[in-house]
User: Fold this.
Amino acid sequence: MITCFIRYQIDPFQREAFKTYAENWGRIIPRCGGHLLGYFLPHEGSNDIAWGLIGFDNLAAYERYRARLRDDAEGRANFAFAQDTRFILREERSFVDTVDGTFCQAPQMVA
Assistant:
């Protein structure tokens, strides 16, 4: 699996708008073929950085997802919401590989 790691610089005064935007992707991304790992808002520290993580089997699956996303009316509306509201100041995308044996490891309780 590869993960699209999206780093957002957001307007900290429009945190609720970004939350709505992220919640909308919670319906759209899985429907279009992405494995939504989650969106994350700042809790402590910097108040203007948020993240989104979306998994794909490979880059070809990502390209198919992008094509479906372009055809998805709710996806287009969510992009328009972000552009109209301007709560995203900057967006960076990186693609990362999962290191085997490290993804989603549950804590082990020691007796």
